[in-house]
Design goal:
Layout (H helix, E strand, L loop, with lengths): L4 H11 L11 H10 L3 E4 L19 H16 L6 E5 L5 H8 L3 E6 L2 H10 L11 E3 L15 E4 L10 H14 L5 E7 L1 H7 L7 E4 L6 E10 L4 E11 L7 E12 L3 H10 L2 E7 L13 E8 L1
Parallel strand pairs: 1-10, 2-3, 2-5, 3-4, 5-6
Antiparallel strand pairs: 6-12, 7-8, 8-9, 9-10, 11-12
The structure holds S-adenosylmethionine (SAM).
S-adenosylmethionine binds next to helix 2.
Amino acid sequence: MRANPLVYRRVAAAQSQDPVLPLNRCSFLESCQAEYALRGGIVEHGKPEDAYGKIQYRGLIAWPERLRREKPLLERVLGTAPIKSLLDLGCGTGEHSRFLRSLGFEVSGVDASEAQLRAAREADPDEEGDVHPRYVQGDLGSIGSLVPAGYGGAICLGNTLPHLREAGTLQRFLDELASRLVSGAPLLLQLLNYDLILDGGERTFPLSLRPGEAPGEEIIFMRLMTPRPDGTLIFTPATLRYRPGLESPLELVSAQNVQLRGWRRSELEGALQAAGFEVFETFGSMTGDPWNPETSDLVLWATKA
Ligand SMILES: C[S@@+](CC[C@H](N)C(=O)[O-])C[C@H]1O[C@@H](n2cnc3c(N)ncnc32)[C@H](O)[C@@H]1O
C-alpha cells in the first residue's frame, strides 16, 4: 500500500510544531475555506440563490500571502500573453483581477455571484479608459455570450472548474473560451488533484487552524469528500470552535454540502485538446512544483493553438 501523502504531511507538520499546517498555505485550500463557510444544503452555483452572498469571501483568504506565493507562476505564464488583456474566470471578489491589473494587464473578471462581483467592483470601480469591462456577471458555461473575442489570456483558479459538473458544460465552456482568446493565448487552470482523491480513496484533508475571536480559542476547518456513483462528489466542509479549557471543548459552528465534479487530469487534457488548446506544462501547485499523482493540486498551463 502506498504512503498517504496527506497523512504524511500532517505528521511532518505536527513534528515541526508548526501551529498552521503547511497545506493550509496552499491557494486551493484557502479558496475552499470560503466555501466551507457557506451554510445550508447542497450549494449549486449559478442558481438564483447566491450562495456567495452569505459569506465575506475576501476576509477568509490571506490574500497578500497567497498572491506573493502565486506571483512567479502567474508572471511566467501570463508573460507569454500576445496581448495584455486577460479573463479572470470565476473571479470571486476580484483579488487576482486587481493584482494582474497592477502588473499592467487589462482584466475582465467573470463570476456568477452578484455578491462576489459587488465586493469586487467596490474595491475596483474605475473603468475609465478600459477597453473591456472590469467585471461581468454570468455563467461560465455561456462565456461566449458574456465577453467579446480578442483576449490575450485567461486564468480560472481556486477550484472554480469543478463547479461545472457536466462533461457537456465543461466542453462548451472551453470551446467558447477558445473563441474569445487570440492564437497563442495562455490559459492557467487550478483545481484539486482529483486523481488522488478518486483513485487514492483520500476523503479527508489536513485540519486547518485559525485563531478564534476569544483568547485561547481556535477555529478548526475540516473537510470530507464523498464520491457519488454519478461521478460527482459531495464536499462537506465544517467549522468547529475549539476551547480546550471547557469540558466539551469542540462545538460545531457550521457544516454544509457542496456538489462538485472531480475532473481528472486526463479528462481535462482531452477537453482542452478538443477545444483547440495545447497543454504546455502541468504543475502540482501554484508555486510551480511539478505535478505527480500525489500532489494536492492540479495546475494546467495550456495555450490556445
Ligand atoms: C472558490 S471561488 C474561487 C475564486 C477565485 N478564483 C480564487 O481563486 O479564489 C469560486 C468562484 O467561482 C464562481 N462560480 C462558481 N460556479 C460558477 C459558474 N458556473 N459560472 C461563473 N462563476 C462561477 C463562484 O461564484 C465563486 O466566486
